[in-house]
Amino acid sequence: MVLIACLLLPWFEWKWQNKIRRWCAALLSQVQHVLWGNARPAETLAAEYCRSVQYRARRCAGTRYGGCAHRLEWRQLWCVFNWLVLLVAMYTPDDLVAVRGEVAHYGTIFGSMTDIALGSGTIGPMHLLTQRIDLDAIAANTALVKKLIGDRKLMAVVKADGYNHGAVVCAHVMAAHGADQFGVATLKEAVTLRESGITKPILAWMWRPEQDIAAALQAGIDLAIISAAHAHAVVRAAKETEITAQVTVKVETGMGRSGVCEADWPSVFRTLAEASRYVQFTGIMSHLALGDEEQNPYNNAQAATFRRAVAAARAAGLTPQMNHLANSPTTLARHDLGFDMVRPGIALYGVEPVAGEDHGLQPAMTLLAKVVVVKPIAQGQPVSYGGTWRAPSDGFIATIPFGYADGCPRSWQNHLWVTIDGERYPQVGRVCMDQIIIFLGDNQHGVRGGDDALIFGPGTHQEMTAEELALATDTIAYEIVCAPHGRIHREYVSPSGKNLPAVLTRTAGALTGTFPD
With a threshold of 0.70, does the pTM exceed it? Predict the structure, then answer.
């Protein structure tokens, strides 16, 4: 009956939208009572699930099924399919949460559910390519940096979806292990963090004066000033909303990127000083161009310019209390440039910011795939487009479902080694859109379809590390971890079970919390 109603409701919704919403609320209440044993009044469900598409309400519900923890995330897509999506989410097996052991894999319903998993285990049957994030590593790296910096504050940078590790989940872990503030590039990134329940200061430094600054202020987002136009825009928005804007001035010290040039410091500082009723000035920030070269004298030159900016702000009547210049390599190696707060990014995800150094960081990301097929190949037989590689002997090849559409650029071809059961196999031929090919030789270890293939990770199973792959492909490890995208299932694991953020907390066998996009 529920499925029949599910199919009929969208057809009727355009005519009897309000009635449909009331009926669906009541129906959902009964369904929830059956599935979760925790029914709530229909009006409560209506408030939670039956909002307009513009509001895009997201709610989660937990249940126990077969002694395993389940979780669903629902999000309305468009008006016609609101109820269809919600009910199919409950009853379509392929899209329900599939749980094996302590790993909960979250399916996707028309793009309406975020792929999230907890625990430890193997790739789910519906996923060919998985990005596994170790939250214990995130916690350990955050605690390590926090201990290293002493009394200084720690701004954890979680831009670009937490360097492709999942900003929301990682931010909650970092907040629990020493992060005092968070830094992002865009306003959208900042608001997403705030909506996820992060209450600590969030600073955004890549935005345009024409954007909806009022919405950012209403969300309690701190803003970086990178030009005179940005300063005027913030003051104007603060006056209009009557919300005090928290601002940091980003100054140009030699990076040659965004930042207020020295010639404009007096006017920008004066603008902020005159608007002190509407703007709370917190400090100065900048970025080192050669931070990964610890002893390069250019770092000292930039630091000297930075100190001049702090002095200029004070001369204008401002009080810069939270000044920060240090990125990951500077945080780890140049404690003299820590100032009031450090701003590491990649180090928190376990990637060494300087190739060849070892600060005890734990890589958090592992990228692994399922071997799709293994087949024989004759000596001299070409592989992939252009026939650029030919088998040196009779043997076997395996297809790995990881192509340039998934973040494997063609620059990786013939430099990548894929690890299966502790043995490395070379990627051969050209990278395709959906796949790469590896040569197994005579396949003496019996690789077969369905085996786990490690593309890169911490190196604990002989797989390539992000740093090793970066060195082989003439790039940086930052780019390696940021590359995987698209058709990839993200899975969060905490082998210790101790480093799960509040949004992933188990409660009486269920999972509770809220996840934004």
Answer: yes
